[in-house]
């Protein structure tokens, strides 16, 4: 909704939050996540297609990468096709899979613990929040802020709930030891056809990440051609999908949550506290380094609640934050949601930093009578 109000892409919107130069930091991080998600989605498409057709994976990687990149080069045409056909194909496939999964008996619910529950909540939060830096690239074209807010919240919210629910139910009904969601869906009667249809429309996810990666890059160097940037982002994502093993991407999701959950809180609070007309998204937007503080504090709060678990060469990251947990007397099994803790810290600090200046500005405006 904020991008719809300002009519600018998401990363340009952050100039009003942090300033022109400092907005480069979240822009670079968003570019990294766009590449990561595009790579992951290409791998998912290729893996599902290769299992369904019992074929090599790499040809599907190339096809998915090329098609998604072509869509990002011509986004308006791609959106028209998606709206006219792909949405209905996806809805029909999901409805059929739900019907098949729910038509048979489901196993009973097993007992879990608070720590595992909130860790799962953090994963569920991290996925939609990772789209927060991308949403503005599309909602800026909305007819009003209201339609942008309702459309994105209801549309994406309903889709997220539906797909998470389908995955859980499919694993419960058809899953077994060593199987994943793709295997479970393929086990559904006529699941092969439904999965292939879903795979074909999954290209929109890759397209969105490639397109937003290109648009985000323009916040760094505005003169670069978006189409050239889209080709570059799509090529890198395709090459990564050919060479990188991302079978376990949960740490990536947690790290995205640690970065973008507090940033979302800082942006929302600051935008609605700052007086209207004071949000500067121009090339000369002044720096506001003080607002980096609640973002960094929210990130630290996330890691202190639930350190992102890495293995191998990145294991030192986990060890360092786990040691800081112990220093502060925070239990490793504290049973808290890192996302909610991070969001609370970031929003409260943002209010503390922003409110005094906003009150002074409003008072000055009232005295001078200028808008």
Concise account of the structure shown:
With 371 residues, the protein is mostly helical. It has 17 helices and no strands. The mean pLDDT is 83.
Q: What brief labels describe this structure?
A:
371 residues; mainly alpha; Hydantoin permease; 74% helix; globular
Note the topology.
Layout: H1 2-6, H2 10-13, H3 15-18, H4 24-53, H5 58-73, H6 75-102, H7 114-129, H8 132-139, H9 145-174, H10 181-186, H11 191-201, H12 203-220, H13 226-243, H14 250-273, H15 292-305, H16 315-327, H17 338-368
Helix pairs in contact: 4-5, 4-11, 4-12, 4-13, 5-6, 5-12, 5-13, 6-9, 6-11, 7-14, 12-13, 14-15, 14-17, 15-17
CATH topology: Hydantoin permease
Run of helices and strands: HHHHHHHHHHHHHHHHH
> What quaternary form is this?
single chain
Estimated structural class: mainly alpha
Q: CATH H level: which superfamily?
A: Hydantoin permease
Q: What count of domains describes the coordinates? A: 1
CATH architectural category: Orthogonal Bundle
Shape, please? globular
Main sheet?
Answer: none
What's the number of helices? 17
The total beta strand count reads: 0
Uncertain spans, ≥5 residues at pLDDT below 50? none
CATH class designation? Mainly Alpha
CA-based gyration radius: 22 Å
Beta content? under 5%
Mean of residue pLDDT? 83
Helix coverage percent of residues? over 70%
Distance from N terminus to C terminus (CA atoms, Å) equals: 23 Å
